[in-house]
Amino acid sequence: MVRHSFFCRKRGVFGPVYVSVGFYDNTLTYGRCRDAPPVYGKHVRCAFVLLPRLIFPFFKLGILSTLTTLIMHERLLPASPNWYCSRCCDVSSGGLLGFGAKNFIYLIDVSVATCSTQGLLVGHKGLVSGVSFCQDVMQSHICASASVDGVVLFWDTNTRSLLRERAAHQSAISALHWSPLDKNLVVSGDEKGIVVCHWYNTGDTTSFFPEPRSIICLTCSPHNWNTVAVGYKDGMIALIDVSKKGEVTRRLRGHDDDIHSLVWSPLADEDALHLRAEAGDASNGASAGEEKDCYLASGSKDQTVRIWSTATGKGVSTLKLPFVKRRGSAVDPTLKERLWLNLHWPKGQPARLVSSCFSGELLMWDLTRTGKQRWTLFGSSSEGQNHSRIVFNTAGFALPDGRQLLVSTSLDREVKCWDLADLECRWTLPTLGGFVYSSAFSPVASGCLALGVGDNMIRVWNTLSAHNPYDARCFWQGIKSKVTALAWHPKREGTLAFGTDDGKVGIYEVFSSKPPHISSSYHKKTVYSLAWGPPLPPMSFGAAAAEGKASHSLYSCAGEGVILQHQPTDLSGDACDVDKLIRQTNDIKHKLSPHTDLSWKPDGKVVAIGNEDGCIDIYRAPSLKLVCSIQQHHKVINALRWHPEDNAPPELHGLLASGSCNAVVYVHDLRRLIENPPENPSVLTEPYRRLCGHTNKITGLAWSPHHNARLASASYDGTAQVWDVEQEAALCNYRGHVGYLLSVHWSPVDPDVIWTGGKDFTVQEWRVSKQEFTLPPKGKKMVDLKEKAKQKKKSKKSTDAASPEVNGEHATNGQGAPDPAEEDVGSTGSPVAPPAPQRKFAPGAKSKDKQAFADSTALKRKKARSVLPLSTSMDHRPKEDLLQDCLTLASITHNAAPPAGCVAGQGEHVHLGLFSDRAALHRMFRAEEEAHVEGGHVESAVYLRLWSGDLEGALRLAAEKGELSDHLMAVAPAAGYAVWSDAVQRYVKQLCLQEQHVKAAAYLLAIHRVDQAVQLLHSHKLYREAIALAKARLPAEDPVLKELYTSWAVTLEKDGHFSAAAKCYIAAGASFDAAKAIARKNDVTSLRTAARLASAAGEVALAESLALRCAKDSAAAQDWVAAQEVLSSHRGLLVHRLHLSVAELLCASLADVLPEAGGGLGHAWAAPGSSGILERVRHVWTQHLGVSPADSDAARGHLGALLVELQNVESPPHSASLPFTQVLLCLSRHVARGVLSWLLDDSGTLAKELWLAAARLRDAADFRLSAALLGILAAALEEVDRNVDREARAAADGLRAWAAYHRLYQLWWRRRPADDGDGLRAEGSPEEGGESQLSGELDVSSLLSDAHAAWQAERRATEDLQKRLGLMVAQHGRNTRASGDQEQPTEAGGQPKETFLSLTSEMAKHQMQLAAIPDTIKLYPRPDVAECCLVLLHLGSLVPECPRREAKDLLRRYGTHPTLSKACRPFLS
Fold it and tell me: Do the beta carbons of residue 354 and residue 338 sit within 8 Å?
């Protein structure tokens, strides 16, 4: 990248184009830079005289990259491997690790020392549940993968391409293995128990159903190609023969829970291990016959490892997992529930077996030993080598030297590599389990990168570690939500502030083991951004004198739109709302727009605050006095960044980059406003630079700390873009992520490296110089994806019952990834969850209709439920029992002795309560009520209480069961006011749960709770109803009304209903906010309405700002009448009316040349006339716009004030991206300034302003437009006095030269059809009348300037010297890399070879000559004189003899450059 640059000026089509010459990777490149300083000679800094002085500056500036640049490869932190899968990672025989993460497969190159990410396989739509490589040497680059959507894919890992796709499963695949013996056999199993054999060479598949059980794992035998061991969820293991249609040869029973892992012994002979069958184990099935006997190990959730003999079908050994107590911690009692037991049997080592344990430990079991201590702990030599949570997968492979490595993946989101020789961890690869929301490099500890991730953790990565390229630490204490914002302290090493999704703000000391300090002031919503800045009142009071006060405060901005200032030394204290200080300092009465981002200028003097309405406010510290407001964006501001000030020229210190949801990056130059702040806040509507290219909203920005005005941006379009801000040029585009990006940061040590993170759970390091794309892909890619996702969601609702489930949730949609608005913090779920029951559907629509008709008929005939079901059921007993009831009732009625234990209305005689006394009836009611409540028929129980006269009890029962009704509320007043009031409040809660809020409010009104009724409607966002009720029942001055209107307005504004929001603001007395809300629509009609509204409310500054925006948009659409109309109602905008009138006159003058330029709706006074532009402007201003002639001191003073005001109006810089109307408005502003100066009798300023107006045409794409406008401006020079100063004369002569330059080319093109085939005519070609015709059309004397020709020749020579210097330095670098020896000057062909010393000496001479050229030549350049001479000579006899002779003379003196000598040769020979 550019470490140093030279500035020179190169002739373009119009005007000087400054060229920045810099070294990129030892090569010389050129880039345009329009704002280089005018004095060229002071900015070439490479004039070294001595060789030792040569090496040090270039070494320091990084040109000799072989001496200074560390060799850094692109790195990537991948997404976390999927959890709860039996084989989700595997290693090829060549050392390539593949693991499934979400619906991707990451490929990692594994070695003893380190690892590197090689690529990504994208193709699965569901979560990847299995990965397996082919073990054949010739096919080791091919792997198979399976996912929960039932698809098996075959990949070529060399080309990262998909080879085959197989969809033989109907359920989620839970196990996959490529046979180690047969290079064409891949076996997979799913949750339904289906086993499928995939034949890679033929593409055939065969399905078996050996057992009706859910499969968790399976493994192919390394000794018999047709034998597959399958582990099931209920603890059974089946050995099947795939050559016999999946016949079960043995069933191994002994485990009591899920089988997590199965591995075969590496040796086929069971005699290698002298293990005896365990007592009590019977044979599990028939003999395998002719198959080779082999041991099989199984790991289960029952915490045991069993070794099985496949010859006898018996278990020969059982290993019980030990509880390994870690140093300084106790054994967690919940470990048993979280266990996943994975096994690995190393090749060639039948007596050693690797297993996982409870807390992430790995154990090496010695199967030949007996007793308790049969295992050895991995990584026991030092603390922290083992995983901290359970291990899911292990995969091993052998190095060429015979050593074996083991790779493990875990719940702690780390991938570790172990050496099985000494059981030590060789390296650790951290992975990420969530979106990368934020990233930040420490300004103190270089290369220390902090990552805020959606898995509730912070990673701090030492990217410059020499021994470990992935040296990262995790911080999780005190964090219970996604980490969405990070900010390093600018001075204190290791102090890192973080913000979370739940509104928490804290500070970590990353170099200590202490938990973080958490602020006691929580945000209500997600923390968007954090920033360190100088303390503001009240925290800054006495900060300089008080000991212990922090030099920086922490500022946090969150989703509710509030910025809080935290005191880092006292986070337990209350944070201060910055809005209070803003309101107090700026005397603001209206509502402030919610804030979305903030950024402190590096010097701490100014802070930029972005708002939800797209406005950016610039405040001066410490009082937060508003300096200016930038109204360029009209959507939510997502990112703000100030240009760094270290090693940057002062003219760049005021650059502020901003990004919002409108996909355009704007850069604003605020240096002048910051250094000389105005008395009243100014409004900026034009950016300094406009960077267009992204197709979706901007999410992150980062300035390069190594280059001037170089910016990186991250976007929702899934790409990162690097910009040259000065040139408005796109340098490169990075497309390595899958999904949108959320963070971007430039490396602080390598100018060619950028780090990005996003939705795909990855952080990626990439080099700018290696990108092949320049701009993001065209089209609305993300919008199309969202539309497809919506369609799939709609189709999913109709097939919801038939979709598979993963961990109780439906499987992912066609995209296979989480919804953009949500993410799974737990990485992924288990693909082995129990299957969901399938619904049975009717065979056809006809049968459905019949069934529906039958059901409706049955409902009509169905009787109402009985209120007394118990007593009714007693009447359906046998006849003998019914007769006995009569006798029992008679004995009770006639006071005879009833049977023992007989109580009417109770127990077996409950039904007799209906025929006995009232006490018996009440007993029967109680029994019936209990039965109703138990059966869920609360309504019937309530009726019984009503019948018994217990109205209060009925209401209480209905309230407890949530069965209150309108009928009960109607009878409730009979129980008294207190009971009725209590019942109403209970009924209101019930109605709210049933989402009947309006009805609930009506009941609150019945008990005179108007405030509660309004609050209820407000809390459930029924604003219209709440306002209607409040206006009808509350006093007009009640503050609740204003709160309701304001809350409704905020909601409407967020939903885009700006007109309705404005009405709410007006009703609340906030007309300022109403006008801003309408203006957010940003169309002409809305802006005009907003301006009128602000004017009616007395908000003069806002009204003028909105009217000016509306006028500019109308002028851009060439609706000049509307533009003048909206400005005419504001006296303070007269100068803008003058400006637009000039633009209209110029536009109308171009109607003949460019018809589309003269379109639009204009005034009658703008019709083209015979007088010049100056006279026409003066006529319009005096006759139609009320400008008085300068015939009095008052009139002159008024004109002077208008001129000063117009000079203070910000003008956008030169830009190639500006449309025609914007170019016209820019140059007309200069013309208006010139006319005002002319009216004040200052023709010198008129000449300079006309020159500046012409300079705006430098990047105009239409040559006809430039020629016509230059002709108009040149004609206006007739009013310039001849007695003006030297600089004004130079400006006028330069403008005439450029007008002549364009007419020269117009003449050439007009003559081309009659010329030779190449369009050029040689000197001496005859044409009658040509000489006199040319002399009447063109004045060539202004084109043939000897002084400008000399200056241009010096610049060409300097450029050539710079190129040769760059080539020499590049060659030196190549020679140094190749041999390490410096190249010595040699002689070739008798000529001494150029040396760096000779070239720099020659460069110094040219610099001195350039410095001696007058400044007017440089400030007001003319067209390339050599180019004009060649065109004149090509025109031949059309040009008079005298100019041709002068042109030849100039070419002889200044056309010696190699690029010109060839073109000059035909004319000078």
Answer: no
* pLDDT higher than 50, residue 348: yes
Interatomic CA distance for residues 1408 and 719, integer angstroms: 47
Read off the amino acid at residue 110: V
Q: How far apart are CA 1445 and CA 1467, in angstroms?
A: 11
Q: Mean of the pLDDT values across residues 587-592?
A: 86
Who has greater pLDDT, 74 or 601?
601
Question: What is the Cα gyration radius of the chain?
Answer: 42
Instruction: Please give the angle made by the CA atoms of 1412, 1414 and 1418, to the nearest 5 degrees.
Output: 110
Whether cis (ω within 30° of 0) applies to the bond prior to 16 is: no
- What is the crossing angle of helices 1263-1276 and 1286-1311, to 10°? 140
* Predicted local distance difference test score (pLDDT) of residue 1252: 87
What is d(CA 654, CA 112) in angstroms, rounded to the nearest whole number? 50
Whether residue 25 has pLDDT greater than 50: no
CB atoms < 10 A from the CB of 1447, how many?
25
Contact by Cβ (8 Å): 1321, 1434: yes
* pLDDT at residue 326, rounded to an integer: 62
DSSP per-residue letters across 109-168: EE-SS-EEEEEEEE--SS-EEEEEE--SGGGTTEEEEEETTS-EEEEETTTTEEEEEE--
pLDDT of amino acid 1159: 57
Q: Given phi > 0 = left and psi -120 to 50 = alpha, else beta, which region is 739?
A: left
pLDDT, position 250: 92
The two three-digit tokens of residue 543, written as one number: 């900060």
With beta carbons less than 8 A apart as the criterion, state whether 74 and 766 touch.
yes
Closest CA to 108 of 473, 474, 475, 469: 469
The answer to whether the beta carbons of residues 33 and 18 sit under 8 Å apart is yes
C-alpha 1439/C-alpha 1436 separation (Å) is 6
Q: Which of 383-397, 980-994, 1109-1123, 1436-1450 has the lowest mean pLDDT?
A: 1436-1450
pLDDT of 1308 above 90: no
pLDDT in the model for residue 937? 81
User: Where are the strands (E) in 1309-1405, listed by range?
Assistant: 1387-1388, 1391-1392
Instruction: Give the list of residues 6+ apart from residue 1144 with CB closer than 8 angstroms, or none.
Output: 1115, 1120, 1162, 1163, 1166
CA pair distance 752, 449, nearest whole angstrom: 16
Residue at 524: amino acid letter:
K
Would you call 388 exposed, middle or buried from its count of C-beta atoms within 10 A (0-12, 13-18, 19+)? middle
Q: Which of 1366, 1456, 1412, 1374 is nearest to 22 (CA)?
A: 1366
Question: In this structure, what token pair is assigned to residue 913?
Answer: 């309560």
- Higher per-residue pLDDT: 688 or 1313: 688
Residues near 1218 by Cβ (< 8 Å), separated by ≥ 6?
Answer: 1212, 1226, 1259
pTM of the model: 0.70
Q: Name the one residue in this structure whose structure tokens are 């199984």.
A: 298
Task: Place 1027 in a pLDDT band, splitting at 50, 70 and 90.
Answer: very high
Parallel/antiparallel/unpaired status of strands 115-122 and 128-133: unpaired
For residues 487 and 453, is the Cβ–Cβ distance under 8 A? no
- Sign of the alpha-carbon torsion through 884, 885, 886, 891: positive
Interval 502-545: pLDDT, tens:
999 999 999 888 899 999 999 999 999 999 999 998 866 554 43
SS3 of residue 600 by DSSP? strand
Neighbours of 784 (CB within 10 A): 10
Cα dihedral 1082, 1086, 1087, 1091 in deg (nearest 10): -150
Examine the pLDDT at 1326 and tell me if it is beyond 70: no
Phi and psi at residue 115, in whole multiples of 5°? -140, 165
Instruction: Return d(Cα 131, Cα 104) in angstroms, integer.
Output: 11
Alpha-carbon span 887 to 898, nearest angstrom: 9
